[in-house]
Fold IS200/IS605 family transposase.
Amino acid sequence: MRNPAYTYAQTCVYKINYHIIWCVKYRKKILTPEIEDFLKKELSRIAAEKGFSIEAYEVGEADHVHCFVSAPTTLPPCQIVRYLKGISGRHLFLAFPWIKKELWKGHLWNDSYFLETVGSTNETAVRSYIERQKTHQR
């Protein structure tokens, strides 16, 4: 019986989730409700087009974005971040040209980002499970 919490591929079963956070350049508070609505639609479109899903997302303090992403094994997390930041930034500049005047050098997003894996179990539980495997084989 298949567990609906997992994705079943030809050669593996997986559940890969990431919490990703990135900020507006210079922490400028430019993510107004109108821009936020556009951004959420854009992020969903990017995810669907590139083969991953965004389970939840929110703008914080009008200057940063939180995304909870579920991805396949074939898509590196750094590539997901490149897609989300690069494509959304370009499309936001086209839809809201006044943003460029607020930021210097034509960059919407800060170069850095935060990325954390998110699982249904914690590190301590996994370590304990692996250690218990020695005793089951003897």
About this structure: The two ends are 29 Å apart (CA to CA). Residues 89 and 108 are 6 Å apart (CA to CA).
